[in-house]
């Protein structure tokens, strides 16, 4: 039998993000039923990353909410990288570290 949520240890952020990424990976491949079961359990046991409100209070999120946020961030990253590439020639003080790699979000000016 599952333990009550109050008796469980807090899940580190990296672990809860990994659970989300595994569910997302499974849902995009042939193991969609496994992904559905995993998502149900992640939500049931509140293992997904939480969000903070403007007062610093934690709130649970659903898989769908995280999926939406993840897609929104990817869109923002893509727009930022496009703007960075467009503006780079016009900003002489901007270094070439205005990267388009998926790990770099910022243009650093020197």
From TrEMBL:
Could you name the domain of life of the organism this protein comes from?
A: Eukaryota
Pfam families hit by this protein: BRWD1_N (PF25437)
Tell me which Gene Ontology terms the entry assigns under biological process: cytoskeleton organization; regulation of cell shape; regulation of transcription by RNA polymerase II
Q: List GO terms (cellular component aspect).
A: nucleus
Q: Output the InterPro entries linked to this UniProt entry.
A: Bromo_WD_repeat, BRWD/PHIP_N
The chain positions of domain BRWD/PHIP N-terminal read 2-88
Q: Could you identify this protein by its name?
A: BRWD/PHIP N-terminal domain-containing protein
């Amino acid at each position: 039998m599952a333990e009550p949520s109050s008796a469980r240890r807090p899940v580190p952020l990296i672990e809860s993000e990994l659970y989300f990424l595994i569910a997302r990976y499974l849902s995009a491949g042939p193991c969609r039923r496994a992904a559905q079961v995993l998502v149900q359990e992640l939500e049931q046991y509140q293992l997904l990353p939480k969000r903070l409100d403007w007062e610093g209070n934690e709130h649970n999120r659903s898989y769908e909410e995280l999926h939406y946020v993840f897609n929104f961030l990817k869109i923002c990253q893509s727009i930022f990288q496009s703007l960075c590439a467009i503006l780079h020639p016009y900003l002489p003080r901007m270094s070439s570290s205005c990267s388009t790699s998926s790990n770099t979000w910022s243009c650093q000016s020197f």
